[in-house]
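Annex B. Sample input.
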Amino acid sequence: MATATLHKWLTHLTNTKQCSNIVPHGSKGQQSMLFLHYHRPVWQGCYLSMNGCREPQHQYARTRNPVGIIETRTLAPVASPAMAMYSLNMAISELKSEAPFGTPSGIVRVEVPIEEQVEAIDWLQSQNHLLLPRCFFFGRKHSYCFNGEENLVSVAGVGSAVFFSQPHPFSHWDWISIRRFLSERCPLIRAYGAIRFNAKAKVSSEWLAFGSFYFMIPQVEFNELEGGSMLTITIAWDNDLSWTWENAISALQETLCKVSSSIMKFPKQTTPPTLILSSHNIPNKVDWDLAVNRALQMIEQNDSLLTKVVLARSTRVVPTADIDPLAWLSCLKVEGENAYQFLLQPPNAPAFIGNTPEQLFHRKCLHITSEALAGTRARRASQALDHQIELDLLTSPKDDIEFTIVRDTIRRKLEAVCEKVVIKPEKMIRKLSRIQHLFAQLSGTLRSEEDEFEILSSLHPSPAVCGFPREEAQRLIAETEVFDRGMYAGPVGWFGGGESEFAVGIRSALVEKDVGAFIYAGTGIVEGSSPYLEWDELELKTSQFTKLLKLDLPQRQKVDCKLAP
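Annex B, continued. Sample output.
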């Protein structure tokens, strides 16, 4: 473990001498130590913070227990974000003079209600794009009751009071490490993040900074409420993790001084004037047809257990100018009814953004819900034609097979940890702005809140993004796909004290400065699937991103690129 002196030295290496978090695939021991405990310093970005996860050989018994104090302080309401910033700076001055509550570990949230209603995505877009890490999450209204009065609409955050990341697969111990900082008494202290689709797969360079999972409790957070807004700061410390109260206060001040209180309202419906130089599909159309036909052959074999596999495509778009991930997300938010919008960007990493309609699970106390989503058709402008397509989807034998596999698998997973599972509706159409799906909602009552980790690990990956049986589908995906899914199709969401919610990270993209964007989509292959129609479904699913890139150069090259295994 690094000493306090080493930590201060690393903190000030903000330009040429940087601490690398690149971990070679399969590396162990000392090579990964800096990655495990520190972010790479970011020029003009946030100060380093503590990694709440520990390697097994460094686990102390007391780091299995909740931190010493978990507290939320609410200051007097103010009229504007600028006044809220003033209140928080004054609060920090007072906190500096306090002893750290007489405990070696803790987390304290200080919040200022704001009478003015400001969108969280506007607040985040008004901040310096180098202020990392940062996150954004917009969920469904049912899960965001705030003190029984106002609904929490969306959350944006910069800096990490504490983050959680490791190169190994997300484990029960990692879940406990996050839970240490959470409490039902402070429901808005939450850890936002994502988990890789397959933590055992080789990590490509664009996904390295995310680790196998990445969660953060923001240092500075903006909450958009139905009846107003709220600006908050969070301080977390743990002496056993070599992160003292003084470290936490100092890091928070460094972050807060870079936060802007001048909020601009950004347009949500205008298409960014981004010109495309090239577009590369992996796999290309020829290789896609081969992969789908191979999967169909395996499904149709009498001795094969495989009944469904989800194959995916990565499309790399190279524009003439950098893509602003928040500008893209703002445009997606306009058509995001019944969907989750998210952004997650660790230090020195691309931004992972998405507009996903699929809920993995939502837990409030012991009550849990999940969703089955499968089968895809395009929407149509004519109500009569749209209804005709809806009936086609409802009566399609091929889509019914795919949907039934997803719904029944989720039911069995929930029944393993719930007293009773109810499916209502059992099958209906969920209409989105440009796509419609077959849909079912499942709900149950957990026997214990400790079953949350079991639910997460058993539901992911679901047949909707992997296949069935899971092991056979994962094996075929690993043999077939020649790109790294990363967090695509993995769990994306947040853990809270008495409540947690995760979506499935589909309809997503990885946006990186000077590189462009990787746009991801997948489709389920079952008996009766057609390579041609499945390719069209990929095009439909990526259209929410590609519609933002319609201003093509005359000499645009559209290249289907095949990578060697």
